């Protein structure tokens, strides 16, 4: 059985989210939730929400009444770049610099297969 969830337009840069995502890739669901809950990075909250959504989607499928959540692992986890908001900041001598506010798309799959 497979449970999937997507988190879109998350206002963290993909590079920073990937650093946290590498900590839980291939781990058991319970262990991954513990890692994310106690991780000091800001992106861990967003990843935890998407992971909980994937677990919930798995449990709401037909025929999942006899399934134990402890048996599942984070089988697939990818962080892609979302749209970038472009802003400008004033600088010296009448110039301006571009500020790029990046966003991420997170895809998580939870399954009982390796």
- Number of structural domains: 1
Order of helices and strands: EHHHEEEE
Structural class: alpha+beta
Strand content: 25-35%
Q: What's the total helix number? A: 3
CATH architecture: Alpha-Beta Complex
Query: Count the strands?
Result: 5
CATH topology: Ribosomal Protein L22, Chain A
What do the pLDDT scores average to?
92
Low-confidence stretches: none
CATH H-level superfamily title: Ribosomal protein L22/L17
Secondary structure: helix percent: 25-40%
Top CATH class: Alpha Beta
Gyration radius from CA atoms, angstroms? 17 Å
Q: Within the largest sheet, what's the order of strands?
A: 1-5-2
Structural overview:
- The protein has 114 residues and is of the alpha+beta class.
- It has a single domain (2-111), classed as Ribosomal protein L22/L17 (Ribosomal Protein L22, Chain A).
- It is built from 3 helices and 5 strands, in the order βαααββββ.
- It has helices at 14-24, 29-38, 43-59, and strands at residues 2-10, 73-81, 85-90, 96-101, 104-111.
- The strands form 2 sheets. The protein has a 3-stranded antiparallel sheet with strand order 1-5-2, with helices on one face. The chain has a two-stranded antiparallel ribbon with strand order 3-4.
- α2 runs antiparallel to α3 (43-59).
- The model has no long low-confidence stretch (mean pLDDT 92).
List keywords for this structure.
alpha+beta, two-stranded antiparallel sheet, Ribosomal Protein L22, Chain A, 114 residues, 3 helices, 33% strand, 33% helix
């Amino acid at each position: 059985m497979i449970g999937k969830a997507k988190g879109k337009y998350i206002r963290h840069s993909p590079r920073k989210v990937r650093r946290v995502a590498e900590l839980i890739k291939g781990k058991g669901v319970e262990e991954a939730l513990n890692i994310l809950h106690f991780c000091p990075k800001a992106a861990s909250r967003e990843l935890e929400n998407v992971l909980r959504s994937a677990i919930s989607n798995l449990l709401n499928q037909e025929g999942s009444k006899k399934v134990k959540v402890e048996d599942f692992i984070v089988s697939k986890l990818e962080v892609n770049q979302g749209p970038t908001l472009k802003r400008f900041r004033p600088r010296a001598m009448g110039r301006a610099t571009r500020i790029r506010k990046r966003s991420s798309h997170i895809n998580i799959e939870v399954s009982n297969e390796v």
